Prior knowledge:
By secondary structure, the protein is an alpha/beta fold. The chain is built from 13 helices and 8 strands. The protein has one domain (39-325): Rossmann fold (3-Layer(aba) Sandwich), CATH 3.40.50. It has helices at 17-32, 41-54, 101-107, 133-146, 159-170, 195-202, 206-213, 219-229, 240-254, 259-262, 284-293, 309-312, 314-325, and strands at residues 66-70, 73-81, 84-89, 111-116, 153-157, 177-181, 271-276, 298-302. An 8-stranded mixed β-sheet has the order 1-2-4-3-5-6-7-8, sandwiched between helices. Helix 11 links the parallel strand 7 and strand 8 (298-302).
Amino acid sequence: MSDLNAGTGPPAFRIHRAAERCLMIVLIALAVSTVSGGPTAAARAGATTNAVAAGRRGDVVTARTRVAHTGRGTVGYREVGSGSPLVLIMGFSGSMDYWAPSLVDALAAHHTVIVFDNAGVGRTAAGKPPLTITAMARQTSALIAALHLTHPAVLGWSMGGMVAQALAVLHPEQVSALILAATQAGTGTSRPIPPGPAAALASPNPAAALSVIFPTDQTAAAQAYVKGILQYKPFYSASAAVKTDQTAAISRWMAGRDPAGRKLGTVRLPTLVADGTRDELDPTANDHLLARTIHGAKLVLYPDAGHAFLFQDAPTFAERIDRFLR
């Protein structure tokens, strides 16, 4: 769900399988717990999801997983909604099951939304080693071509934002607009993850890792997110081997060793850079750097929101995206 990277070298942590199992227990506990009080952003998100799903064909949770045969191997994907195409690129360790249904379904009210698995995840081919951000971008480009998408907008979250940047550098003719959420430039000048959050993610306490993604005062939003993604059956994520490969790819990108990252200044596409002001994994200085480097980029920072800001009040962010893409 996040960019598990602490600078240009190897990450400062490893989440072992036992810890992952414990994390799932914590997530399930959050999902089934109750929250007192009036309507929250999380509650509004759920209500919007239900309203949207009721007004169109299906929703992302029930959407069939399909396989596209591309020039870069098979790619597992789902498609939902109608309107102009919008491709969502997932971040570190996640599968397409990590997209909150509240966000996807809100976007699907006005767009044909395509979610898919990155290289080596689910039914998507791993490709030739080593895995790089550029390689993932080329596979994304191949998916866009295979699905005959006409100038889709592209939203990338965390590591997915890196892939979106590389796609815009390598294949600008395929992309109409960029939304870069909680991500870093590949110029070699982005600030690394601070040691405190890195230690929290390394902690054997799964709740500590979850608190780095959502601010501690956003329990309701974290609960709604977990409850939403656990609707996917069966829920899955990247394997340990893929996570290791993704970690190396992120490290190269952050260090400026991925050629596409160093060419970010050549991007001339409408771009929205967005993040939470309390993103502990990605200092807001990195958001400002992205906005300065991409000509004409717009920057929006959400107060009292963290790395998963786009899920804290999904309808609000979806509305922002709709306005940006008009």
